[in-house]
Write a structure and sequence with these properties.
CATH class of the largest domain: Mainly Alpha
CATH architecture of the largest domain: Orthogonal Bundle
Helix content: over 70%
Number of helices: 7
Strand content: under 5%
Strand order of the largest sheet: 2-1-4-3
Number of strands: 4
Radius of gyration: 39 Å
Shape: rod-shaped
Order of helices and strands: HHHHHEEHEEH
Largest sheet: 4 strands, mixed
Oligomer: single chain
Length: about 260
């Protein structure tokens, strides 16, 4: 802790600007790598979520179809039982002793016939359910297979990009962490991270190019440009809020960091 405090106390504004610009170079390259992946991670996540939803829906439909088939089987068994009872009652009718017994058996036969009619109605209804839900099931299965194929392709594409860049990204992340720790100015680092989070391109510190902050059309007055070139204090662009450095410093650090990163990666 004492060493870091001493570094902070002895580092000049120019030292801090150079260190911060080096950090920006590394973070910029990390951003480029992640941008290379583009929307692929989100696309993969969306496909995985959609597939999970389709699988849940598929399971529900399969359960409905299986339940309907079970009901059909049960009602067919009921019909078979009713038919056996009718056959038995018809045999009994042949041996009745009076009309009263005959009528009683006839009512039992009629009841069993009604049970058969009701069971047949239920069978038709459940068969319609099996047919209708079966069509939906086929559609969901086809869509699920298509989405799984698409997911496999996207996962392969993402894995390929990650494989190509993971070593470089790991090195860059480690270098970014080291540069952040060695900057020696928590307030400046905090400001840098805050600006990076606010600007679209993630560039918190930029150089002066053709009289304006890089990427800006607003001209910086000559006197202010001279102050920036002197590197005596931290200067901020009043339009974008980004930290400014002169083009010579930026060029020097770009060349130095390019050689350093090439050696690391």
């Amino acid at each position: 802790m004492a060493k870091k405090t001493t570094q902070a106390a002895t580092a000049t504004v120019e030292d801090k600007l150079r260190a911060l610009y080096n950090l920006q170079i590394v973070d910029r390259r990390i951003d480029e790598i992640r941008n290379l992946r583009g929307e692929l991670p989100l696309e993969v996540q969306d496909l995985e979520d959609e597939i999970a939803g389709l699988e849940t829906r598929l399971a529900r439909i399969e359960e409905e179809v299986n339940s309907a088939k079970t009901e059909i089987k049960g009602h067919k068994q009921l019909i078979k039982g009713c038919q056996e009872k009718i056959s038995k009652y018809e045999e009994q009718q042949k041996n009745v002793r009076n009309n009263r017994e005959f009528d009683a058996i006839a009512k039992e036969i009629e009841f069993q016939e009604l049970e058969i009619q009701l069971a047949e109605k239920h069978i038709r209804e459940f068969e319609a359910t099996v047919e209708n839900r079966g069509s939906v099931l086929t559609g969901v299965q086809e869509k699920l297979a298509e989405r799984k194929g698409h997911l496999e392709f996207k996962q392969g594409e993402l894995a390929s990009i990650i494989k190509e860049t993971e070593k470089e990204e790991a090195v860059l992340l480690e270098r970014s962490s080291a540069l952040s720790e060695n900057l020696g100015d928590e307030r400046l680092l905090s400001a840098y991270n805050r600006i990076r989070g606010k600007v679209n391109n993630g560039l918190a510190i930029v150089s002066i190019e053709r009289g304006a902050a890089s990427g800006s059309y607003f001209t910086i007055p000559p006197q202010r440009q001279m102050e920036i070139a002197q590197r005596k204090k931290i200067m901020v662009d009043e339009h974008s809020g980004r930290i400014l450095v002169d083009s010579a410093l930026a060029r020097e650090e770009e060349e130095k960091m390019a050689a350093e990163l090439a050696a690391l990666v």
